[in-house]
Amino acid sequence: MDKSLTKHTKVLIIGSGPAGYTAAVYAARAMLKPILVHGFQPGGQMTITTDVENYPGFADVIQGPWLMDQMKDQAKAVGTDLVDDHISSVNLKTKPFEAFGDSGKKYTADSIIISTGAQARWLNLKSEEEFKGFGVSACATCDGFFFKEKEVAVVGGGNAAVEEAIFLTKFASKVKLIHRRDSLRAEKLLQKKLMDNKKIEIIWDSIVEEVIGDNDPKNVKGLKIKNVKTNKIEELKIDGLFIAIGHDPATQLFKDQLDMDKEGYLTTKPDSTQTNVPGVFAAGDVKDKIFRQAVTAAGMGCMAALEAEKFLSH
Fold first, then answer.
1. How far, in Å, CA of 242 to CA of 144, rounded?
2. DSSP H or E segment with residue 27
3. Exposed/middle/buried for 166, CB within 10 Å: 0-12, 13-18, 19+?
4. Which sequence positions are flagged as catalytic?
5. Distance between CA 212 and CA 173 in Å, rounded?
């Protein structure tokens, strides 16, 4: 391999959301000269989050993409080498570790921090795509606040969907849970809480066909839903749509090299970001399916950098 295409670093950070950028800030300040490889969506899920009101330190509403730009600039300012590439394969069985980029570059590293994140699963409708961030969301804890005294719908039938529906009743006047089957997969205790809540109406055996809305200003007005048993289509009047049909962690790259749970999330030691391979750490949504917040991801990025520094000093 052409030597000029090989870059070596003490710390290679793969992925660039709050976890990756925070890890970079800490690693760079520890004089480890980290390399951070951005991936396909620099900034990750935060770049499709418009109004952010729950990130500590900002009294005014900030924009997700702006926050990621700030973190990126900070990582760069303290000495991170930011590389625009996408890692397509890794070898964690060699020392130093190896990672191969789509660009043809090879990265070798004494330690690796994985912060490749996760993606919300969407319904893949053209109309849904059109209103993302304008009434269509995949995060009730992020966006529920904007639907005070409004009517919203949640799509899904697992724990996440039921929890989001219950959470949204704090703000919304009415929550409609739309599920494609005639029973929920959520745990029984949650189902009972859901059924007991007067604000929630469940619409069984139904799927969303189309999101209806205005373009000026851009906002959601309603939904076309189809009953899968009768094929009957009806329109619902709603102000917001929350998709809660699960997330997919970006862990394909590490299959058969790192331990994961059955959903593909990387597993780490308790109270640590250490994976089953010494020197490889995981931070953010790639290992966290419970909290999934920018602030917890950033916290884990800090942990990973500190743990990598300790690992390298031994």
1. 9
2. helix 18-29
3. buried
4. 139, 142-143
5. 20
User: What count of residues does the chain have?
Assistant: 314
Per-residue pLDDT band at 52 (split at 50, 70, 90): confident
The two structure tokens encoding residue 135: 């009434």
Copy the structure tokens of residue 3: 């030597």
Pairing of strands 106-114, 97-101: antiparallel
Please state whether the peptide bond connecting residue 56 to the residue before it is cis, i.e. omega within 30 degrees of 0.
Answer: no
* Burial grade of 280 (CB within 10 A; 0-12, 13-18, 19 or more): buried
Condensed to tens digits (0 to 9), the pLDDT of residues 87-125 reads 999 999 999 999 999 999 999 999 999 999 998 899 999
Name residue 234's beta-bridge partners: 225
pTM above 0.70, yes or no: yes
- Listed residue (174, 142, 156) closest to 239, CA to CA: 174
At residue 3, the pLDDT reads: 66
User: Do residues 99 and 14 lie in contact, with contact meaning Cβ atoms separated by under 8 Å?
Assistant: yes
